[in-house]
Design brief:
Number of domains: 1
Protein name: Integral membrane protein
Structural class: mainly alpha
Order of helices and strands: HHHHHHHHHHHH
Keywords: Membrane, Transmembrane, Transmembrane helix
Pfam families: DUF975
Largest sheet: none
Organism: Lactococcus fujiensis JCM 16395
Length: about 230
């Protein structure tokens, strides 16, 4: 299946009920992206201005801010997972419509949230360990583990969840022979992300939902053998 076909299917599902609902589902990650990019730019400008004014290269007060950023990043990651879960449901149920208020927080249940967090932790740990050796092995492993969150969704839904490592193993097995195709699919979005950078995050309004839905389309065809 061509990447263009995956993208076409992603758009059909994503904008089935109109672009507004699709954007509303991803509104928190989108706003976070725009604010992060704007904040980065403002910080860089402020630091340059300060250094030009007093010749100082030091900055203070970063620790408290870093903790806030970490907490906020975890929150955004969980919301993003909720969005992915909602997209999977939309792919499988043609009558499923987006309800942003509930859909974007669906993993914030105690029977789900810790499963997601533990999976994130294990994926990060394994990927980091491989990256310590060389960058390329780390990249390969990140591709191997790329389907973990969507496999987690299925395990929770059908009541067969065991642990995070089993899910990572299943993702690795599922991606055998498909890592190149997935990598090239991700590469096809590079141009879009350049536009996101140039627009200070505004193009992310379109790109974030589009890329997320394309990832789900990839998984849906991969799991049933029609990729």
């Amino acid at each position: 299946m061509k990447n263009s076909e995956l993208k076409k299917e992603a758009k059909m599902v994503l904008y089935r009920d109109g672009a507004g609902k699709a954007i509303s589902l991803f509104i928190i990650p989108i706003v976070f992206l725009i604010l992060t990019m704007a904040g980065t730019i403002m910080t860089d400008v402020q630091q340059v201005t300060t250094r030009l004014a007093d010749g100082s290269s030091n900055s203070t007060g970063g620790n408290g801010f870093s903790i806030i950023v970490v907490i906020l990043s975890i929150f955004i990651a969980l919301v993003s997972v909720s969005c992915i879960f909602s997209l999977i449901q939309m792919f499988r149920d043609t009558k499923r419509i987006i309800n942003a208020k509930s859909d974007m927080f669906q993993v914030f249940r105690k029977d789900v949230i810790f499963k997601v967090l533990f999976l994130y932790l294990w994926v990060w740990l394994f990927t980091s360990l491989w990256t310590i050796l060389f960058v390329i092995p780390g990249l390969i492993k990140s591709l191997s583990y790329s389907q973990s969150l969507m496999i987690l969704f299925d395990k929770i839904e059908d009541g067969t969840y065991t642990n995070s490592r089993d899910i990572i193993t299943e993702s690795r097995q599922l991606m055998k022979g498909w890592k190149n195709k997935y990598f090239y699919m991700l590469l096809s979005f590079v141009g879009w992300w350049i536009l996101v950078e140039l627009s200070f995050g505004l193009v992310g309004i379109y790109v974030i939902p589009f890329m997320s839905a394309t990832n789900v389309a990839f998984y849906e065809h991969l799991r049933i053998g029609t990729l």
